[in-house]
Amino acid sequence: MARLDWYIRANLKPRHLQLLVALDELRNLGKVAVSLNITQPAVSLALAELEKGLGFKLFDRTARGVQPNVYGECLIRQARVMLNTLAQTRDELRALLSGASGRTALGAMPAMTSALVPQALAALKRDSPTTTVHVQEGSMDTLLPELRRGNLDVLVGRLSSRPSADFKEAVLFEGSSMVVVGRHHPLAGAKNIGWGDLRGHPWVLPPVASLPREPLEAAFQDHDIPMPSDYIETLSVPVIATYLQTTQAVGLLSRVAARHYCDLGMLAILPLELPGLLRPIGLTWSRQRALSPASELLMKCLTEVSAGLKL
To answer: What residues pair up with 154 in beta bridges, in sequence order?
Structure first.
């Protein structure tokens, strides 16, 4: 153990980390040599020296190339974290040298990018005009791996039903959906609307297996309404809002997105309750990496803005 501790502290270099990640991604010594612009014997020698220094094998050699064992998988996972930390340090230093106050990367679920994220960014810029924020939109399934790899610092979206030990979470608000129509829809502004009034209308449905789909299907079943035959399926908030505005269709939006488009005069919210509860909306970040001041400021702005939204 003392040897392992000494080797990692004194001899593990960034080039070793790059080699490990390249071997994991390419699984072929020749391809790794090309990607790192070195010879294949140099790759073999570097890997042999690394394994000798650590005192154990990291990869199994097969006819198809190399395959990481449990020790290799552990070291590769941490190598990605360390390389991303170094890259973030470089980017933050560059930002500081250019006059910026720091840099952070935010991942956001589409429903959050219509109102919450832009308002939080505006609040951040009022407090710190030279802080740089990279925003990446996507589903939580695509954003969580990016957070784990260190490519993102903070996520805002639906919290997991089974939180990972790798992440921390903070709830912002409940995650329920609302039934919405275009401002000029016949049901917009009508009183005493029931689920039966939606019978026969075209719909924008959440895709099958998406979280909002099950409560909506339960509502149809509870009120003896057949699934619509005239519909499109999407979770894209801009597509839903614009489509509803220009058609007689009915759709679902998250509470925060529905309020936003209602305030803009584009959509109207129908007073209908959806059965079942969706996971709340909140912030997710890594336990493995310390948050930069820019990331902490962004989270503060997201929290304060979410508290002030009319939900």
So the answer is: 106, 285
- For 251, phi then psi, to 5°, come to -150, 180
Q: Does residue 11 or residue 42 have the better pLDDT?
A: 42
Nearest alpha-carbon partner for 241 in 311, 309, 183: 183
Residue 268 CA, chain-centre distance (Å), reads 28
Q: Length of the chain, please? A: 311
In tens, the pLDDT along 155-166 reads 999 898 777 788
Q: Give the mean pLDDT of the chain.
A: 88
Query: What predicted TM-score, i.e. pTM, was given to this entire model?
Result: 0.66
Rounded distance, CA 14 to CA 82, Å?
Answer: 9
Distance between CA 49 and CA 58 in Å, rounded? 11
Residue 87 and residue 67: Cα distance in Å, rounded? 26
Q: What are phi and psi of 169, to 5 degrees?
A: -135, 155
Tell me how far the alpha carbon of residue 256 is from its chain's centroid: 17
Give 118-172 as a 3 state SS string.
HHHHHHHHHHCCCEEEEEEECCHHHHHHHHHHCCCCEEEEECCCCCCCCEEEEEE
| 63, amino acid identity | A
pLDDT, tens digit, for every residue of 102-119?
889 999 998 899 889 999
